Amino acid sequence: MTKFDDIRPYHDDEVKKVLQELLVDTDFLNFLGRYHSPRLSRYIPGVVRFFVRRFLKGQLGNVSSVREFQQMISSYAKRIVETTMTQFVFKGIDSLQANEGYLFVGNHRDIAGDSMLVDYALWLSDHDTVRIAVGDNLIQRKFATDIMRLNKSFFIRRSEEGAKKVYAALLQSSEYIHHSIEEKQSIWIAQSEGRAKDGLDNTDPAIVKMFALAKRKEPLANTVASLNIIPVSISYEFDPCDYLKAKERYAIDAEGSYDKPSGEDLLSLVKGLGEFKGRVHLNFGEKIHGDFETAEEVANALDRQILENYQLYQVNYWALKLLAQQDSSGPFYDTWQALGASVSFSDTSEYEKRMDTCEQIWRRKWLEMYANPVVNKHMSRCSHLTPI
After folding, report:
1. Pairing of β 131-135 and β 278-284
2. Which residues pair with 154 in a beta bridge?
3. pLDDT band with cut points at 50, 70 and 90 for residue 380
4. What fold, for 66-308?
5. What pTM did the predictor assign?
6. 3-class SS at 209?
7. N or C: which end of the chain has fewer CB within 10 A?
């Protein structure tokens, strides 16, 4: 037993046993069966489970290490890129050293897709894949937990209660991150807790404070330098979960809270991976450095690169224009006044069809999610203003 056993990814010597357990996990087999053959699974679930298990045995039978597991799923990542994207572009990997460990801090839009694409880009470039930081709020089904740990995920225990337990959980996460970087194992972590469902990508200084917790007696600038922190920007032309995010944000504004149905995170994970995204852009920035004294300074340094490297699409400007037409003042109106003259549109019918799939009462939130990146990026370039 080590102090990281309850949060770390699986080791190679654990892979075979976990895979054998997955092959007899009825919940897992039913989930895959419903995804691939929803109608048959309703009427003959046992038969569907049989064929799913037989298929998986063929795929997983010779897998005995984490690398072999990731080699297998890399083919699925390739298929997702080819079938759900019209273009996938990644930049900035050439400046990374193959034998170095980095802490990639990225904006977060998709539960599994963001880290999958980081891994896929690294894989294509002959770099090792990352250890992925995942909140323990996603640990709802054992099979999902097993698959994430097989794919080099580690868990940040956010559900702890009481000051001592919360502190201990954050310290453990911080120590594991430093331990990984010292082992030359890179990590991907989101810039704030949860996905940016409003389209506003801002780094939470609390994340930076967690990084520093294990080295709290050292100057912050030294800790930041030792972690090799790289800002990462990912932008999707279309978000497969856009209407789900709009629905949640509308409920929070209207009712003060959102009662998330059981299994919605798993639904979002599946939709995010499997549905259309259009063009996707991934940018690895430059290692941050400086005489940082506060977590806020580090967060601002991350934000500058994440926002500057974020790729905007026509749909973002189209959403901004519609909101500016609804408003007579405010950030959407002001940003469109500043930028609108330089923007022209070709065919917007695809955007209109996509918005039509969203309930009328949620559409303002839907538009904000697509427009906010334009506002955020524009305001970050105005040195006298703070990004919203």
Report:
1. unpaired
2. 133
3. confident
4. Glycerol-3-phosphate (1)-acyltransferase (3.40.1130)
5. 0.93
6. helix
7. N
